[in-house]
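Researcher: I'd like a structural prediction for the single chain below. Treat it as a standalone chain; there are no partners to consider.
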Amino acid sequence: MRISLSFRLAIALFCGAPAAMAQPQLPAGPGKAVVEQSCLGCHEPIRIINAGYNRQDWQNVIHMMLNVGAPVPPDQVVVLTDYLVANFPEKPKPAPSLLGGSARVEIKEWVVPTAGSRPHDPLAYPDGSIWYTGHMANLLGRLDPRTGKITEYHPDTPSSGPHGLVADQDGNIWFTGNFAGYIGKFDPKTGKFIDYPLPDPNARQTMSSGTRTMRVAISAGSIPRRARRRSSPRRGGRIRRPTASSI
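Model: Treating it as a single chain, here is the predicted structure.
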């Protein structure tokens, strides 16, 4: 019986597929078991293998995971950190491109109080302060650049994943609770939070153990301004779904 070349090639490719699709293996050593038990429930091994940080940045990553409930035993945090630093060190950064000229740039940084909070979404407030979201630590933060003082405020809803900041004309700060499916309002004058649940209970960012399912939540920066006005919870305390005709 004669077998065509294309058929034999197909057999070879099929037989070789499992090896090509095999997951990269974590290096052996103390800490590998912690990664397998505490990290691989949500992350593919390749995500860890392709990463590369110095000790300080790995500590920050671990704190972020602990803030959202990663099951790392307290006595294994140092073991895990040492394993990641030893096996996945910081990778070389690309060389900068220097441009001639007289321009001078000054960058000032402030270290936030809560490690692993993943601060982002800076909002310049009328009083000169800077607000930000601590996405992985369930907080809003306020920085006074003049004194360097940082104050943190925690929403009433736990593990809500604050994201995106906008301020209204009354000075209230609005944000999205990405992990909990709501839009929140914070009043800096009273320190009180108000939650407005989204109409769709599945409109949230989630990571399911093992399946790594991600759902995208609404973000304040993606809402057109006219849609914000039309769906404002100040009118009856409801969040409405704007249509093309209503926007």
